[in-house]
Amino acid sequence: MLMKKTHRIALLFNANKIFDREVIAGIAAYLSSRRSQWDLFLEEDFRLRLPGIDRWQGDGIIADFDDPAVAAALASSSIPLVAVGGSYENPNDYPVGVPYVATDNFKLIQLAYEHLIDAGLGNFALFSLPEAQANRWAQEREKAFCALMRRDRLEPEVFRGQSTHAPSWDEAVQQLIAWLHSLPKPVGIIAVTDARARQLLQACTIADIAVPEQVALIGIDNDPLARMLTRIPMSSVIQGATEMGRTAAHLLDQMLHGVRLPDSRILVPPAGINVLASSRHQPARHPHVMRARHFIRQYACQGIKTDQVAEYVGISRSSLEGYFRQELGCSVHDEILRMRLEAATAILESGECNLADVARRCGFTSSQYLHSVFKRELGCSPRTYQKRALGLRQDHESEVAEG
């Protein structure tokens, strides 16, 4: 019996980015579902280093072509190569002679835009990145946003701001706050990444701008780290990066077996939206309710009580309770509990299983109290909820892999 050849494959990605990590996860998922034997070459610390890659004696490469340095380093490579990156409005912007798997930038923005429309918003803006070769994908998302605005006879509003550097951080935040104040309210803002969306949330907090009543925002990447670093749970478009990894691995597998795929282009649509508090725009008629909900979103998981919310708003507890009953049909405590429950379900869906830690991080006094709230509000225990959520995700991933 002949043994299958083991191919040596280099993965040129910067795994500091959630997009790149998910592409790598998709490659791994493809290999686990097939009998292909690959030895994968990755830097030990996952940082991308290119010197000497042109002298690497391997069988194939899958690389992130959103990075212009990667594309340049591989321009004359004779090794079978599959490129991964963002889609382009102009077909001439794609690399020549290289199979290319792209995230569909237009559909990413379109999905975010339609979500904000469904939330009842009529003003829209985009928070992008400074123009640069390394940010070509962000400029493509700008083009998509502007095209959608003009299609709907709206004037595009795009703010690029500054790149994030420690010396200019305060100046960048003040520029962002000035831009936020200049926008008509309420406004829905799409950020080209979750990192940019997190900056928006910070600026809104500093400027005391209510999210999502005045500014509803949504990022792109569904990065769990970015969500953990924000006080208000952040909505995000889920890129199909895992599917991109599977597709890229499949293309390279074909090439390793003699199939020619010059100039093949495959656009992968987004996988959906993780809708959380930052984009759940529900116009509040009374300013006290709007201000109270803004405070609750930021501090619900820190164990705040109704009295503290009333003190922040500057009115009596009974008056605030009356406004909440009139406008939302619930008590202030109900709204606090809802936000805590939303935070807990998000953590459980990510795979964390230590209920005591989940309870502590979400403002519940004990894991027993967390359990009783889940049973009362969702009809199941936290562990049952988690098993169902993870089971649905695994079923979906299996369907995608089989498809």
UniProtKB/TrEMBL annotation:
Xref: PANTHER family: LACI-RELATED TRANSCRIPTIONAL REPRESSOR, XYLOSE OPERON REGULATORY PROTEIN
Identification of the protein by name: DNA-binding transcriptional regulator
Superkingdom of this protein's organism: Bacteria
Originating organism: Massilia horti
Pfam families documented for this protein: HTH_18, PBP1_XylR, Peripla_BP_3
Gene Ontology molecular function: DNA-binding transcription factor activity; transcription cis-regulatory region binding
Domain HTH araC/xylS-type: residue ranges: 290-388
Key words, A-Z: DNA-binding, Transcription, Transcription regulation
PROSITE patterns for the chain: HTH_ARAC_FAMILY_1, HTH_ARAC_FAMILY_2
